[in-house]
Every structure is written in structure tokens, then in C-alpha cells.
Amino acid sequence: MERNQSPEFVGIHRLKKEHAAQIRDFEAWADRGYREFHDNHYDWWAFPIDQPSSKGYSYVVLPGDIDELKGDAQFISRYKRGLELVCASWGWDLNRSSLMQTRNSVQRWQHWPIRLWKMAYSAKIFGYDKEFESMKQYARILFAQKENFSYGGKDLAALFLDEEANHSPARHLLAPAEPDHPRRAGPLF
What we know:
single chain; two-stranded antiparallel sheet; 4 strands; 4% strand; disordered C terminus
């Protein structure tokens, strides 16, 4: 299986270490009322995807990397907990696929569609369909509220629409690939 061989890649060991530290931060932020979820950046290592970002290929995971990560029960437990906690910071119960009945004033949508997109896309490529479907349901509630799902001039809504289910959700967002390497497209975000 294909693995990230880029010299930029932090490697699986460091990715796991940064991820574990981030989930510990998430737990502390939740205990303090969720505000810090909205004031910090963590998407790259908390919810890795198979496309380059503003961090280049540092946190890109390809199928072989994903399989290795999924083979680590502790990583997966933390990964799913991270999904739950960030969703809770928006007032969304990931496991029940519904708005939380009890939440504070900070636990609401913060108008960062790129974060929801990255989380949902990460869950999708990791094969966590239940979690992906829950986030898709949340996105559709936001669509109904006329929330804008554009980021950096790109429309992120396609990931959450059924007609896109059989297409790569990131494909329409990438810069043209260099002819000698199909994975060497410009940064996603």
C-alpha cells in the first residue's frame, strides 16, 4: 500500500505523539468550557488527511499510513474521542447524530467549514462511516440555516452531498497535479 514517503512527513511515531498531546488538550479544553477549541489550530495532526495542506506533506497520510494508524487501538480510541470533542464544541453529539440538549453559549457553530470538512473527510478515509454520516448530517443542518461552506474561494459542500458519494471529495479542490507525480498537487488549504 502507498505510504507518505515525502521528506516533509513527520512520520507515524511523531504524528501519534502530537495527536496524543492534542487529545489531552481537547479534554482539558472541554473541562474549561470549550472556548479553546475555537481559538486554536490542530486540524493537521488531530485529523490527518491524504492531501497536502498549508503544512505541505508533513501530516499527509496515505492508505498504508492509515492502516498502520488503525492498527493502534490507543490511537483510534483517541482519534474518535477527538472527533467527539470537537463536535461537542459545536453543540453536536457525534454518537447520537443530533444537537446536544445541554450545552453552554460557546458550544455552537463557529463558522469554520474547513474544520468540519477536514474532520469529516478524515473520518471518511479512515473508514469511520458512522462518524462521517453524523458530521454530514450536522453539515446539512448548517446548510438549512444558510451557513456558507466556502473557504479560501473553494466550495466545501460537495463532501456532504449524496451525489458526490462516489467521487473523491478532495479531487475538485486540488490544484492541477504535476504530470510526473499524481499526488504532487498544490496545498489543499
